[in-house]
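I wish you would study the pair of lines that follows with an eye to the fold:

===
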Amino acid sequence: ELQLVESGGGLVQPGGSLRLSCVASGFTFSNYVMSWVRQAPGKGLEWLSKIFGDGSTYYADSVKGRFTISRDNAKSTLYLQLNSLQIEDTAMYYCAKGSDIRGMRGQGTQVTVSS
């Protein structure tokens, strides 16, 4: 059974940092491009970043230079380092199998940025 389990969210002040993790199972992780997407309250899904099996990465303009995606294929784990967090980054964050918002997602981890 394909499963994605996110963790690492929490409450952080503006300017702070968090590191999100996503453990994948049920498929050959290294063979797939993986993404991070988020959904802010009252808004639709927003694609943030993707990483291919060879490590090549792409970012949305909204997070470029602040967020860093990475993966550990040996651990079937996807990461997202969130730096310089802003109030507007408050959202539920999901990892997704695939290159865009249409991929299967986990249950998500909540990131709240507040002073």
